[in-house]
Amino acid sequence: MDLNTITEVVRRPSDRPGVDWREGDAWLAGGTWLFSAEQPSLYRLIDLTALRWDPLVPSDAGLEIGATCTIRDLYAFALPSDWIAGTLFTKSCEAFLSSFKVWNSATVGGNICMSLPAGPMITLTVALEAKYELWAPDGSARVVDALDFVTGNNRNVLAPGEILRRIDIPGHALRKRTAHRRFTLTRLGRSTVFLIGTQTAGTSDLLLTVTAGTERPVRIAFDTMPDARTLHESIDAIPADVWFADPNGTPAHRRHLTKHFAEEIRRELMAGGDLA
């Protein structure tokens, strides 16, 4: 879509692009959402791809993902063999409500900053205990837990002119065993619920991440594997106003699905293999 209010595109921003931020600006990375709808309040686009941030940087500490990393690059990335949680990268990319062609432009950071309940990059990074580095217009930086970034449907903690620079996933999370469940009304539809369970090798702990069915991510931690009743009670404890409602499901429907799939995840991780 043509954005007929745009009067300027900054093709070569400074290394700290927020320094010159002003009202009416928008960050441009993949642009897959930006150009999909009218944007009458925008007057200037700042092209982040010109900064050429490294898309994926593995190290002993874990994996650094540049905010402008495309979904295509994330999907194609060959993770070290001991990062067994890497299967979640593929599954999360495939959870996009988009064609593979969109993957060539859509970015990890863009999906996170849209902060929609069904954002699969949010699911992935929250489940893998990531931290986000945010850059402010004054040149300062802060780090927030992925769990705390999204505050509601299309809402997050970013201040005006603040930008998501990178996502850091710790190595210990990448070495965890995982199980996931996702439900959609149609085969290629938007996620109604998307759950991921992770477990530290050699332990019986459980970290359950609930997304898509809730307006913001919810993470429930157990030091030892809970029984079915305890798990269900923990899901019932999620506040009523956190559950999401849209044409893909009512809050009651999403709570029911979450309980069902959480139990499947619990049993799968207890059994040490896939039940399917």
Automatic annotation (TrEMBL):
Question: Any idea where the FAD-binding PCMH-type domain is?
Answer: 1-174
- Tell me which InterPro entries the record gives: Diverse_Substr_Oxidored (IPR051312), FAD-bd_PCMH (IPR016166), FAD-bd_PCMH-like_sf (IPR036318), FAD-bd_PCMH_sub2 (IPR016169), Mopterin_DH_FAD-bd (IPR002346)
Gene Ontology MF annotations: FAD binding; oxidoreductase activity
Q: Cross-referenced PANTHER family, in alphabetical order?
A: XANTHINE DEHYDROGENASE FAD-BINDING SUBUNIT XDHB-RELATED, XANTHINE DEHYDROGENASE SUBUNIT C-RELATED
Q: What is this protein called?
A: CO/xanthine dehydrogenase FAD-binding subunit
Q: Which organism is it from?
A: Streptomyces netropsis
